[in-house]
Amino acid sequence: xxxxxxxxxxxxxxxxxxxxxxxxxxxxxxxxxxxxxxxxxxxxxxxxxxxxxxxxxxxxxxxxxxxxxxxxxxxxxxxxxxxxxxxxxxxxxxxxxxxxxxxxxxxxxxxxxxxxxxxxxxxxxxxxxxxxxxxxxxxxxxxxxxxxxxxxxxxxxxxxxxxxxxxxxxxxxxxxxxxxxxxxxxxxxxxxxxxxxxxxxxxxxxxxxxxxxxxxxxxxxxxxxxxxxxxxxxxxxxxxxx
Length: 242
Fold this sequence. Notes:
The chain has helices spanning about 90-105, 130-140, 195-200, and strands spanning about 10-20, 35-40, 50-55, 60-75, 80-85, 110, 125, 140-145, 150-155, 160-165, 185-190, 210-220, 220-230, 235-240. By secondary structure, it is mainly beta. It folds into 2 domains: about 1-110, Inorganic Pyrophosphatase, CATH 3.90.80; about 125-240, 2,3-Dihydroxybiphenyl 1,2-Dioxygenase, domain 1, CATH 3.10.180. The strands form 3 sheets. The protein has a 5-stranded mixed barrel. A 4-stranded mixed beta sheet has the order 7-10-9-8, with helices on one face. A 4-stranded mixed beta sheet has the order 11-14-13-12. β12 and β13 (about 220-230) form a beta hairpin.
């Protein structure tokens, strides 16, 4: 995947061998977008680089556009580039919807050159920033960036983002006592919650509540939710579900 990062934000010429509206010969699904490969010398050394072309709503055989993202398959070695017209942009969620027809069969993440911030991001005050960072890294969170002078870190797990900052006088509205965040649990959606639970079990993570299946009513529909809870080192409750 690292060798594909050189294409991010670059203008690239691609050939389309699975045009919009065509049928996949092996699996018989219809391509709702144009799909092809990078047109360069690497193709001729059996190193095809797959590409989704978004934002073009007609069948094309060749196109020059901008690479805005990489679709990295975690359980497969067949990654793809996302190519769009120069003036276009797509959020991760929009990309996921457009490539779902094929990528739903693979666990994957979308990688961009810039961080895409969620609309709502909790910020947690913590007692020791370094210990908290290590705790969240054990859970699988990635540190996207830090401001070490402010004892601040921005963390991400799949599409879930949180900020943590060592306690200071800037945000406190009252005396902080363990457990922090009383009355709050932070709900985070995980693609494969059962698989994630097993990974944490193997790491001997202590669960506040073990994996359970709950049913919730949303208007007149009933939804089944697999979920478990972990309490972080400051006492915040983290709820992971599907």
